[in-house]
Specification:
It contains eight helices and 13 strands. The strands form four sheets. The chain has a six-stranded mixed sheet. The chain has a three-stranded antiparallel sheet with strand order 1-3-2, covered by helices on one side. The longest helix is centred in the middle third of the chain and has 21 residues. This is Endonuclease/exonuclease/phosphatase domain-containing protein. It holds the Pfam family Exo_endo_phos.
């Protein structure tokens, strides 16, 4: 965040000078990491980029102008995050369609924490005053692509960032119940859309903060397979399990445990339109164009542009109408 958008000359600054430009209470993402994120996105060259953990619309706008040559339109509605991390999009300019973004941040997830439920049962005042339901930790952003009528889209993307495993108040171990409630509500939104648009291709994507894959599915995501026909695009594309990790947990003894916690689920209408061989997890590259090794130490992990790796796929023969 800056006092006005600076010119590209700031890209040549030293890190300490770069940080001094910030007008936010938060530090800027390091200049090198931001440049490396841009480098990766330019390699991917996507028409639509889906982001989690964005520091607001201004941050996304400045990133696009300074680092992405202003070839995209930033698209973001501030969500409920207490940590200023939002979900948003970059959409390539001059495409032959329009877009509309809607928010679900005010939608109840039909969930109260155990101590809140207990207070209601016993007639005690509820700490915090929430007596009906919490809402999404961040949001489920609903992006509609259309040509003439936003109520008649040709593609819908639901982008979510579900509750993390952090539980600083010790009220929901590993954030399980809250994440489960958010996932259940996300599926309700998806099912409502399929009821209104039964033939429409739909993507449900984002950081799920757990294993929502078909193999060894975490408990909070099992409803996805029980109530919908959504499938992970990497599963549809038969990507080997060892190539699906989007996050690495560094363990003692130079060990790294790879897990997929970032997903792009597609419905049956979209599955046949995924270009063969296009779905993959992008690996960050060094200055010589070689993919970085799997991080086996915290120093190696912290040197990467992000601790998450992008999920990439290509849609072809989509009817734009």
């Amino acid at each position: 965040m800056f006092d006005g958008t600076p010119g590209k000359e700031v890209l040549d600054l030293k890190e300490v000078q770069w940080q001094r430009l910030s007008t936010s209470v938060y530090e800027n993402k390091s200049l090198k990491k931001t440049q490396d994120i841009a480098k990766a996105l330019k390699e991917i060259n996507a028409d639509i980029v889906m982001f989690c953990e964005v520091g607001g619309f201004e941050s996304l706008k400045n990133f696009n102008q300074l680092f992405m040559d202003d070839v995209y339109s930033p698209c973001l509605i501030e969500g409920n995050s207490e940590r200023n991390i939002d979900v948003g999009f970059l959409i390539r300019k001059n495409l032959n369609f329009y877009f509309d973004l809607q928010s679900n941040k005010n939608r109840p997830i039909n969930y109260l924490y155990p101590h809140e439920r207990q207070s209601l049962l016993t007639g005690y005042p509820v700490k915090g005053g929430i007596t009906t339901s919490h809402k999404f930790s961040r949001d489920v952003a609903e992006l509609r692509l259309f040509t003439t009528d936003k109520e008649k889209p040709f593609l819908i993307i639901l982008l979510a960032h579900l509750k993390s495993r952090l539980d600083p108040d010790r009220i929901d171990p590993n954030g399980f119940e809250r994440r489960q409630a958010e996932m259940r509500t996300l599926l309700e939104i998806y099912n409502e859309l399929t009821h209104v648009h039964p033939e429409l291709p739909i993507v449900v994507a984002g950081d799920f903060n757990g294993n929502a894959s078909l193999q060894n599915t975490d408990e909070e995501f099992k409803g996805l397979y029980a109530t919908t026909q959504l499938k992970d695009v990497l599963e549809v594309s038969a990507l080997p399990q060892e190539a699906r990790a989007t996050f690495y947990q560094v363990r003692n003894g130079a060990r790294a445990e790879g897990r997929q916690i970032d997903f792009a689920f597609i419905n049956p209408q979209l599955a046949p339109l995924i270009k063969a061989g296009s779905a993959h997890v992008h690996r960050y590259k060094d200055e010589f164009g070689m993919a970085h090794d799997i991080p086996k130490s915290m120093d190696a992990k912290l040197s990467l542009p992000s601790d998450h790796y992008p999920v990439v796929f290509e849609i072809e023969n989509l009817k734009i109408k």
